[in-house]
Design brief:
CATH topology: GTP Cyclohydrolase I, domain 2
CATH superfamily: GTP cyclohydrolase I, C-terminal domain/NADPH-dependent 7-cyano-7-deazaguanine reductase, N-terminal domain
Radius of gyration: 18 Å
Number of helices: 4
CATH architecture: 2-Layer Sandwich
CATH class: Alpha Beta
Family: Belongs to the GTP cyclohydrolase I family. QueF type 1 subfamily.
Keywords: Cytoplasm, NADP, Oxidoreductase, Queuosine biosynthesis
Function: Catalyzes the NADPH-dependent reduction of 7-cyano-7-deazaguanine (preQ0) to 7-aminomethyl-7-deazaguanine (preQ1).
Number of domains: 1
Strand order of the largest sheet: 2-3-5-6
Distance between the termini: 61 Å
Order of helices and strands: HHEEEEHHEE
Largest sheet: 4 strands, antiparallel
Subcellular location: Cytoplasm
Number of strands: 6
Protein name: NADPH-dependent 7-cyano-7-deazaguanine reductase
Length: about 140
Amino acid sequence: MSTAKLEDSTQRPLYGERIIEESKIICFDNPNKKRIYEISIQLPEFTCKCPFSGYPDFAKLNITYQPNLKVYELKSLKLYINNFRDIKISHEEVVNRIMDDLVNEGLPHWIHLNAAFNPRGNVSMQLDIFSGQKRN
């Protein structure tokens, strides 16, 4: 492969980058609307950038929710989460934005988002956000 061809392929967004950039949360119909149940999703490789330093921040996201009429499609959720990797955003803002999007798209009965950020500079941070009313 020539150097010119290699340089050319790195200048435009690659197909994976385009898919991530265009991603949005997709939901499908809850297969059992009559039953109250919980779904837990782990996303252990979340990244965004610190808005002050530009350094990467890493976190494990845990989503637990009780679906109402819709259920989150996992691949779309993964791609949506990957879209934050190059965005300079605070921990508080990104977790609230993700929660807003989850609530607006899925309309769950109840949802809990936990974000456990890896330590940086000897400081770690964990955020927990809840929305809705948990049902028994």
